[in-house]
Amino acid sequence: MKLLLKLREEGCFGNKNIITIKALANWAAKGEFFLSNQGNPLAEKTIEEEMGEIQREEYPPKQQNKRKNKMPR
Q1: 41 and which of 14, 32, 33, 60 could share a cystine (Cβ 3.0–4.6 Å)?
Q2: Which distant-in-sequence residues (6+ apart) come within 8 Å of 16 by Cβ?
Q3: How far apart are CA 39 and CA 42, in angstroms?
């Protein structure tokens, strides 16, 4: 899953803002790329949740210095 997310971040699947984690999870579930310990294919929702957790760990949101414009009194 980390590899798919890395490839997404690098733009291998197209614009990363267009290719969502949900779309990657759907693709992976249809191809049965990820299996459970019992050998059963993981559900799309499970893959999506795992990828979301990995993305939060590997690619934290970039902090932006946003200052609220305060009007002088």
Answers
A1: 32
A2: 8, 9
A3: 9
Question: Please, is 7 exposed, middle or buried when counting C-beta atoms within 10 Å of its C-beta (0-12, 13-18, 19+)?
Answer: middle
- Cα separations (Å) of 24 from 9, 14, 17, 69? 12, 12, 12, 39
From the CB of residue 21, how many other CB atoms can be counted at a distance below 10 Å?
20
Q: Domains of the chain: which residue ranges?
A: 2-58
pLDDT of residue 66: 55
Q: Contact, 59 vs 5, CB < 8 A?
A: yes
Predicted confidence (pLDDT) per residue in 18-71, tens digit: 999 999 999 999 999 999 999 999 999 999 999 999 999 988 877 655 555 555
Q: Report which residue type is found at 70.
A: K
